[in-house]
Amino acid sequence: MARKPIIAGNWKMNKAPDEAVAFLRELAPMISAYSNVERVVAPSFLVLTAVAAELAESPIAVAAQDAHWAENGAYTSQVSVNMLSPFIDYIIIGHSECRAYLNETDANVNRKAQAILAAGRKPIIAVGESLAQNEAGETVDFVRAQVSAALEGIRHEQMTDVVIAYEPIWAIGTGKSASGELADEIIRTAVRATVGDFYGGSIADAIRIQYGGSVKPSNMEEFMAQANIDGALVGGASLDADDFAALVEIAARVKGP
Ligand code: 13P
Question: I need a surface site. Which of 14, 47, 77, 182 has the fewest CB within 10 A?
Fold first, then answer.
């Protein structure tokens, strides 16, 4: 089945409000025509309202980089899904940097996924193994466990709103990317197959799964040529308008129509 490719730029802790708006004025005209690719930018919380206002008439969607699962309460520093909802379509959860530095757990990723879907928004659930796990041959088991935990209790009909991003930790920000074939193999056997085990073949076939980790214009074609990879979650290269536009153009060309 044809899955619409989705390219999401995770800006991480980069771009203040004025920088983000200036950047989008450069980027938006370059990528606005590629309607067969879903285009998403994920600024920091502080910048979301300015970005959402700037993109109000644009086909580019906005994502938050995280959310808390509770509606409100005594959670100092946190932002709820309800607070974010007017400004975003997507929320990235389970990013390896949050797992590493902010104590993100599989159980919390699941709570967040449930809260996001209940609010009618779409989670981008990031999973991926460390270098040590990769070298020990644990990748498939580990990623399968992350995917299973994240999806616990999510209903069949909610799965159309779920995006999963496979990001091997050793490939993030390192310049080292997985080969297209290897990434496709892990996505097929550990991510899509796990979705299939729980939800059946047609949902496994329909769910969109991104690759992330040092994606750039020079390797994008290799990833987009893979049958199981439906786009990219991009850090560094999404901060540069020419690079981001090149990634969108390549996805549109390779994935078609
Ligand atoms: P890089 O593209 O900078 O490796 O970052 C990937 C990432 O973590 C996207 O979420």
Answer: 77
Q: How far is the CA of 30 from the centre of ligand 1 (A)?
A: 21
Q: Cβ distance 38 to 3 under 8 Å? A: no
Active-site residue 95, yes or no?
A: yes
User: Pocket residues for ligand 1 (CB within 6 Å)?
Assistant: 10, 95, 167, 172-173, 212-215, 233-237
Report which residue type is found at 29: P
- Which pLDDT does position 1 carry in this prediction? 61
Contact partners, residue 146, CB within 8 Å, separation at least 6: 94, 106, 109, 127, 128
The preferred substitution site among 44, 176, 234 for testing ligand 1, maximizing ligand atoms within 8 Å of CB, is: 234
Instruction: Quote the CA–CA distance of 186 and 171 in Å, as a whole number.
Output: 14
Distance CA 220, CA 214 (A): 10
